[in-house]
Amino acid sequence: MADWKLPETFAGSTGTVRWNRLGEADRPPLVLLHGTPFSSYVWRAVAGSLARDHQVFVWDMPGYGMSEKSAGQDVSLAAQGRVFTELLGHWGLAEPVVVAHDFGGAVALRAHLLHGADYRALALVDPVALAPWGSPFFRLVRDHADVFEKLPPALHGALVREYVGTASSPGLHPAVLDRLVRPWLGEPGQSAFYRQIAQADQRHTDEIQDRYPAIGVPTLVCWGEDDAWIPVDKGRELAAAVPGARWEPVAGAGHLVQEDAPAQLTAALIAFLRGLR
């Protein structure tokens, strides 16, 4: 999985989406959603394991990773929820299992609760779901994105590298950190980085937060116990809000559970998936 590629394209309503499919076509479908400021690359280890028993779909949201980045692009949670619903239709997936991290959790929840996307089951990993959210740094950049966007490239690169690094509890391997930061460097990467933060609006989770008790599909909530971005108490609160949700804390992991504890996360997901049969 070192050479992570997304060879397929989809013309979404807010830009071209890059995606890929792993595993045999006759296996049950499972879709992975990444968060911010990441890309599908964070799922590479987990995706490879899940593809043994599932047809796994991975994609980069518009404005992220390998997907299109453009001036004036709508990369809000509202737009991403619509694009995900469009993409499920493009793939012809009626009831996939959906596994979503961080910002992707809100995207999956909006698609399900507002746009009628049906899931076989839903696994949420340290999702953006409950107010308030956004670290002090995140809020600072959001409120002054036009200023930060003008940083010299070297300073911008150092800022992004430091910020992404704090998503891990034990620390990221330098090569992994390089790969996660790379899409945000140069043009249009630098502008895209501040664009997605500037458009992060809590009202897009406020709109659905009261609907979580209406979620009727099997749900798993996983959370890194050392998450410095979204406290683990938010995970317990979310699991309590969704009827019958299974709660799975992951010891020794920060916000990027996929990088900090891929084996533990994969084991939790596989156990959850086996329980659906």
Automatic annotation (TrEMBL):
SUPFAM superfamilies assigned: alpha/beta-Hydrolases
Domain spans labelled AB hydrolase-1: 28-262
InterPro entries in UniProt: AB_hydrolase_1, AB_hydrolase_fold, Carboxylesterase_BioH, Epox_hydrolase-like
Gene3D superfamilies: alpha/beta hydrolase
MF terms (GO), sorted A to Z: hydrolase activity
Entry keyword annotation includes Hydrolase: yes
Record's keyword terms, sorted: Hydrolase
Presence of keyword DNA repair: no
PANTHER family reported for this sequence: HYDROLASE ALPHA/BETA FOLD FAMILY, PIMELOYL-[ACYL-CARRIER PROTEIN] METHYL ESTER ESTERASE
Identification of the protein by name: Alpha/beta hydrolase
UniProt source species: Streptomyces mutabilis
